[in-house]
Write a structure and sequence with these properties.
Low-confidence stretches: none
Structural class: alpha+beta
Number of strands: 5
Radius of gyration: 17 Å
Strand order of the largest sheet: 4-3-5
Distance between the termini: 38 Å
Shape: globular
Mean pLDDT: 88
Helix content: 40-55%
């Protein structure tokens, strides 16, 4: 899987957060950042990368996803089907469907949302690295279905 991002950009991101740049970590970071609006599970990432990196283990995937998330380089979302990972977008709201598991990013870059986060950070004398707000419920198709 070839990343759309230059390796130098990925190396800079890792260095800026004090993380070592291993082959596996670079590949995972690139895969998550290139996922755009998809939110992948650790198993999805393992399957995508294991052909390219035959020595990649599931433990390595989970450990590196935890490190990348803790550093604020990727976003971890809890869903009814388990954790999913995606790129850290500008402040936004994740709409997580509890029936089908779909995730939609909305209000990306909304000035009111960004102002709210700024006020909260200032009030708590806090410097946020990433922001994730999730709303769980039913997407339109699931809400409209007879089982919804």
């Amino acid at each position: 899987m070839k990343s759309s991002r230059p390796t130098s950009e990925l190396l800079e991101l890792l260095a800026s957060r004090g993380l070592a740049a291993t082959t596996q970590r670079l590949a995972l970071l690139a895969a998550v950042l290139d996922s755009h609006d998809r939110h992948l599970s650790a198993e999805d990432l393992y399957r995508e990368l294991s052909e390219e990196l035959p020595t990649l283990s599931r433990a390595t995937v989970y450990n590196n996803l935890a490190a990348l998330g803790a550093a604020g380089l990727i976003e971890k979302l809890a869903t009814p089907d388990g954790s999913r990972y995606g790129p850290v977008a500008r402040p936004h709201v994740n709409l997580v469907c509890t029936a089908c598991g779909s995730i939609s990013d909305v209000l990306v870059g909304d000035p009111d949302l960004e102002a709210l986060i700024g006020r909260a950070a200032a009030a708590g004398q806090f410097q946020p690295r990433s922001v994730s707000l999730s709303v769980n419920g039913l997407c339109g198709p699931c809400a409209a279905s007879p089982a919804g």
